Amino acid sequence: MKAGNSTGEYALGSSDAEHERLIRQAARYAPLTDRLFCEAGIGAGQRVLDLGSGVGDVAMLAAKLVAPSGEVVGVERDPRSIARARARVAEAGLRNVSFTQSDVSQIASGKPFDAAVGRLILEFLPDPVAVLRSVIPLVRPGGVLVFQEPSWAPALAVAPHLPLWTACASLVRETLNRSGANTDIGLALHRIFQEAGLPAPTMRVEMPLGNGPEFIRRIYDVLCSLLPRIQQLNLYPERLGDFRTLLERLQLEVSESNAVVPFGVALVGAWSHRPM
């Protein structure tokens, strides 16, 4: 997702490298999001609204669930991300996905949706309750709202014995927080849904763990995208050493300890139906 206006500042940017990082991240998160959407009842023939589509991964996942008889409309502010998402949808041969450029609080739609979904979007909103309130009328009565948001606290608790990895993860979290994100908003979804006028949501939390190259590289990739912002905020700590050798040193630390690390964050999923 590329933030702007009501979505606040998106510190990770919209470079080609960031797009590639998002695609790699989405591949790891896809099974978690797929399970959540299925549990929430998203299925064939439905019309789904995807908030903060980014480069299109959640929209494409939803498109497969709703099948050719359904439809997915993705909303995204950043034109570069929309262009990449459209190209990927065309390459995948998905004819039931479209994207529109809009702020998430100013979505216009004449036909109601069966579901509104989002992944790692509410964390960047200065007022997620207000945005949810604006989205609820777009969903038919009885339709479902499903969101998957981060919680960094469980992730940081996994590997306190890995000082370099923990320092990197803490730096990512601090940079995002200093840039306006709420990195533990997942744990607040129970309250946010209800304040927006929805029933208390059904919730789950999942956190992939491992020590393969993609697990170790993930935190480094996020740091690469955040580096201009880290430097702007003067947050880069001396204890991380030379950034050019950081990935190699992270790999060595995890390998030598025979430990597992999270792939990013714990993902908290929540879903609730619009009252009839």
What does this structure look like?
Residues 1-8 have low confidence and may be disordered. The chain contains nine helices and nine strands. The longest helix is centred in the N-terminal third of the chain and has 25 residues, at 16-40. A seven-stranded mixed beta sheet has the order 3-2-1-4-5-9-6, sandwiched between helices. A two-stranded antiparallel sheet has the order 7-8. Helix content is 43%, strand content 19%.
pLDDT average, as an integer?
Answer: 92
Question: Main sheet?
Answer: 7 strands, mixed
Count of DSSP-assigned helices: 9
Order of helices and strands: HEHEHEEHEHHHEEHHEE
Which residues sit in consecutive blocks of at least 5 with pLDDT less than 50? 1-8
What is the first-to-last residue Cα distance? 31 Å
- Helix percent reads 40-55%
Radius of gyration: 18 Å
Overall number of strands: 9
Structural class: alpha/beta
Strand content: 15-25%
Give the SSE layout.
Layout: H1 16-40, E1 47-51, H2 57-66, E2 71-76, H3 79-92, E3 97-101, E4 113-119, H4 128-135, E5 139-151, H5 152-158, H6 163-178, H7 189-195, E6 202-206, E7 209-210, H8 213-232, H9 246-257, E8 261-262, E9 266-273
Parallel strand pairs: 1-2, 1-4, 2-3, 4-5
Antiparallel strand pairs: 5-9, 6-9, 7-8
